[in-house]
Design brief:
Elements: H1 2-5, H2 15-36, E1 40-49, E2 54-65, E3 69-71, H3 73-83, H4 86-105, E4 114-118, H5 121-125, H6 129-140, E5 147-152, H7 153-158, H8 160-171, E6 176-182, H9 189-194, E7 199-202, H10 204-208, H11 214-229, E8 233-236, H12 242-250, E9 255-256
Parallel strand pairs: 2-4, 4-5, 5-6, 6-7, 7-8
Antiparallel strand pairs: 1-2, 1-9, 2-3
Helix pairs in contact: 2-3, 4-6, 6-8
The structure holds ligand C2E and magnesium ion (3 copies).
One magnesium ion binds next to loops.
Domain EAL: 24-275
Protein name: GGDEF domain-containing protein
Length: 275
């Protein structure tokens, strides 16, 4: 970054950058406190099948800040990544998600639900990631077959050999893997073939205009065909309207997530009734 800006650029004295740096430092200090004070919580968004039955949820972290109110992950996940706080935060997310799976496993009506958890690059790259997750699964008693880790293309491509090894270790005990925001990155098809994935998630940017933009429609269809050829599942993200849902259904999509089926909510508000 410094290189790109040029050797002689007086980055340090750029007032805008300094303001951004100090905002980041405040956020970082706040996050540390927030972790100690248990200000983070998980929201859950339903994932449904072709009959609109809930098959699982995606866990989405929120921060209940004492002054700022509910802070979205788009704001704090990047800072957590930069500062390393993603390690304790990511571990807390996995622990909480596993505890929820264990709770659901005790009841017939919820025991088959899957739990998707987003894992960020720095967290996944940590040399102890697989070991920690293996031991968490053992200690918590959560069923690894119900757990889905969502990774992004950039994360996987940054060190594909390492990713393949880690995914293999976790998959051998049943953990599933999804490629999140698919289509927005740069995966080549040969990489895609090598990765031990279970599922692709069509990014919501393609779903949004799928009815009006022929390019987005073509991309959505291409992802569905590709997934079928590679024997992968597909979830369409960000489905908000009946029109989008019908288009995707007709194109062969069998799993959906979006406001049409349910917004992310705290567990007590989650409506798990079969519709
Ligand atoms: P993501 O994993 O792609 O999650 C989907 C995002 O789309 C969520 O935003 C969700 O609330 C939103 N969404 C779902 N359905 C709709 C819809 O119909 N319309 C629209 N407009 N949006 C919809 P959210 O919860 O703000 O999370 C944003 C991103 O933050 C996530 O994107 C994920 O990359 C990251 N994130 C969230 N929780 C975690 C976490 O526990 N760990 C890590 N590392 N990242 C997380
Ligand atoms: Mg996700
Ligand atoms: Mg996504
Ligand atoms: Mg995203």
């Amino acid at each position: 970054q410094a290189k790109a800006a040029g050797r002689n650029t007086l980055r340090f004295f750029d007032p805008q950058m300094q303001a951004a740096a100090s905002a980041r430092a405040t956020l970082e200090a706040d996050m540390r406190l927030g972790l100690e004070r248990n200000e983070f919580l998980l929201y859950y968004q339903p994932v449904v099948d072709a009959q609109a039955r809930i098959t699982g949820v995606e866990a989405l972290v929120r921060w209940q800040h004492p002054e700022r109110g509910l802070v979205s992950p788009a704001e704090f996940i990047p800072v957590a990544e930069q500062t390393g706080l993603i390690l304790p935060l990511g571990q807390w997310v996995l622990e909480t998600a596993c505890a929820q799976l264990v709770e659901w496993s005790a009841q017939a009506s919820t025991q088959r639900l899957t739990m998707a958890v987003n894992v960020s690059a720095r967290q996944f790259r940590h040399p102890e990631f697989s070991n920690q997750l293996l031991s968490l699964l053992r200690v918590s008693g959560a069923n690894p077959y119900r757990l889905k880790l969502e990774l992004t293309e950039s994360l996987l491509l940054s060190d594909i050999e390492d990713a393949i090894v880690k995914m293999g270790e976790l998959r051998s005990i049943g953990v599933n893997f999804s490629l999140d925001d698919f289509g927005t990155g740069y995966s080549s098809l040969s990489y895609l073939k090598r990765l031990p994935l279970d599922q692709l998630k069509i990014d919501q940017s393609f779903v949004r205009d799928v009815l009006n933009d022929p390019n987005d429609a073509a991309i959505a269809r291409t992802i569905l065909n590709l997934a079928q050829s590679l024997d992968l599942g597909v979830v369409a993200e960000g489905v908000e309207t009946k029109g989008q849902h019908e288009f995707l259904l007709r194109a062969g999509c069998k799993a959906f997530q979006g406001y049409l089926f349910g917004r992310p909510v705290p567990v007590v508000q989650l409506d798990l009734r079969v519709r």
